[in-house]
Write a structure and sequence with these properties.
heterodimer; A: alpha/beta; Beta-Lactamase; 2 domains; seven-stranded mixed beta sheet; 15 strands; B: mainly alpha
Chain lengths: ~290, ~160
């Protein structure tokens, strides 16, 4: 990961970072044009540099150039989606000025903010999670953004894979497995297959038939179409492990679209703070 | 006898200088022609396959020989290492203005979105058509003239000395 960051970040910024903290602890770096650089360790943001390190146009250009391997033209669809996937599971969120063509977003120019998210694998010691893994059934992990859903998802994927389940990971944004030079940068287990960069809706249709998974794992379920795909997978007998953004269970239940998810899952894991698993509910037991 | 030998040497030197002059124009033309055809290759690739710049560069460099291809190979390798790759285009066969143009082209290459990149490439293509045509003309006229002048000057020196 250090090698990847040394290529991705401008030298001055990289040197400042390694002078201030251990790189493997950083979960996020935020660059805003002509504003101080912030980085996050365990969810807490800190300003970089004793006398603030200000991000310049050339710093942002360096990161974008490195992230796109100097081939920005090949990342147009990613620019439209607001992120670029870099090696090792690093995801770079970006915002700038949209360019419309015939009413549709054609590209993003004058990028002024970057949010570099660095993936980590964390061993989670929680008997409730172990219990879900041991008696695995359809599971939904729910929390606000940035609370550690993806980290828990990674841990559960590896645990299930280690138990011999064939786990198919739908990693549209390349941040779960962190592929680097065709190898997994983050170990997700020996029985894990990673579908990288394929739109999830397409992957549900094609990969379920071709890869015959026991479990499908995916991050950040979004929209009715995906929820229908998940319902289809469950109907076919494939178990699902997924995450969803939600403030609390009540909001999920009240949503016309997302309430369907709760009808299909057995375990609901709620995270209420950074890495703080508040509740693991067995919905079947609760409804019984 | 000494005069004859001296005349021979001077004739050889003059002819050699003429050939060097012609070679410069030939190499310059070949460099710019290769650069132009690389721009065409880029337009094709970016319109369809959208391969990485370093891959397109390597593939093109390996498909033949020449000064431009050598520079391009160095550029592609430097790109992968994350260095200032445009400095690779520092050929002695280029005029100062040509060199600045090529370096600026590579400095900005791959740093803009798809539509802007294609527009820029098409603009470069149009500009390079003229430059290559002028370089070919220079090669045929000035290059050939230099080689002939060199030989003639050598013979003239020989006659004078004789």
């Amino acid at each position: 990961m250090e090698r990847l960051l040394s290529t991705l970040l401008p030298l001055a910024l990289y040197n400042e970072l390694i002078g201030e903290c251990r790189l493997n602890e950083i979960t996020e770096i935020r660059l805003r044009l002509q504003r101080p650089v912030y980085y996050a360790i365990q969810g807490r943001y800190r300003r970089l540099g004793k006398s603030d390190f200000i991000a310049t146009q050339s710093d942002l250009a360096h990161v974008l150039s490195a992230a796109t391997k100097s081939s920005m033209y090949a990342y147009n669809s990613n620019l439209i989606d607001g992120y670029i996937s870099y090696d090792g599971g690093i995801r770079i969120g970006l915002s700038g000025e949209g360019v419309l063509k015939n009413g549709a977003l054609a590209t993003v120019k004058n990028i002024s903010s970057l949010c570099i998210r660095i993936p980590h694998y964390v061993e989670i010691k929680d008997p409730r999670i172990d219990s879900v893994v041991n008696r695995f059934d359809n599971t939904l992990i729910m929390s606000k953004p940035g609370y550690g859903k993806t980290t828990l998802l990674r841990y559960m994927i590896k645990s299930l894979s280690d138990k011999g389940y064939n786990v198919l990971v739908l990693d549209e944004r390349g941040e779960l497995g962190g592929i680097y030079d065709a190898e997994q940068a983050i170990n997700l287990g020996d029985c894990t297959d990673i579908v990288l960069g394929i739109p999830k809706i397409k992957a549900y249709e094609s990969q379920v038939r071709s890869m015959r998974p026991d479990i499908i794992a995916t991050d950040e379920i979004f929209g009715e179409r995906e929820i229908d795909c998940i319902a289809d997978c469950i109907r076919c007998g494939v178990k699902v492990l997924a995450t969803v953004h939600a403030d609390n269970v009540a909001k999920l239940k009240n949503s016309r679209v997302y309430s369907k998810l709760l009808d299909n899952v057995r375990y609901l894991i709620t995270i209420i703070g950074i890495g703080n698993i508040s509740e693991v509910s067995d919905l079947r037991k609760d409804y019984a | 006898m000494l005069k004859f030998a001296l005349g021979g040497i001077l004739c050889f030197v003059c002819a050699y200088l003429g050939i060097v002059g012609k070679k410069y124009y030939d190499k310059r033309y070949a460099y710019l022609k290769d650069f132009y055809s690389f721009v065409l290759e880029l337009i094709d690739n970016i319109s369809f396959a959208q391969d990485r710049l370093s891959d397109i560069g390597k593939r093109y460099a390996d498909s033949g020989k020449g000064a431009f291809r050598n520079d391009l190979r160095g550029y592609s390798e430097t790109l992968e290492d994350g260095g200032a790759a445009e400095k690779c285009f520092d050929s002695k066969y280029l005029k100062k203005c040509d060199r600045a143009y090529v370096q600026e082209f590579f400095m900005n290459l791959g740093k803009v979105d798809y539509d802007t990149q294609l527009s820029k490439l098409n603009l470069t293509k149009a500009q390079m058509e003229k430059t290559v045509s002028k370089a070919e003309n220079d090669c045929k006229t000035t290059g050939n003239l230099l080689s002939k002048l060199g030989l003639l000057a050598g013979i003239a020196i020989m006659i004078i000395l004789a």
